[in-house]
Amino acid sequence: MDSLLIDFSQVYGKNGTNEISRSVYNTRATLPNTITPQAPKLSFESMLTDSLKKVNELQIQADKKIRDLSIGDTDDISDVVLASSRADTALRLVMEIRNKFLDAYQALSRITG
Fold this sequence. Notes:
By secondary structure, this protein is mainly α.
């Protein structure tokens, strides 16, 4: 079995301080400022609007691919099925979110009314 020999003679500085621990301490002092980026401030309204725009874009892309398949511009039916499936799943998700919001609103109105 090989043995590992570590030479610590170069670790200490001229005045006898531990250079490794000083560099680690200095790194720790600067890490929170450099690692923690500021999170973008997103409102719920902008997030919901962006999501609805993406769902609309998926619907438009699916419609275009279906139209291209029907007129013969494309032969790849798997791409058409995939685009339609994505658009359908996104629309179902938006509808479920809407239903949950309506349920929550009705529950709140029963509590306060």
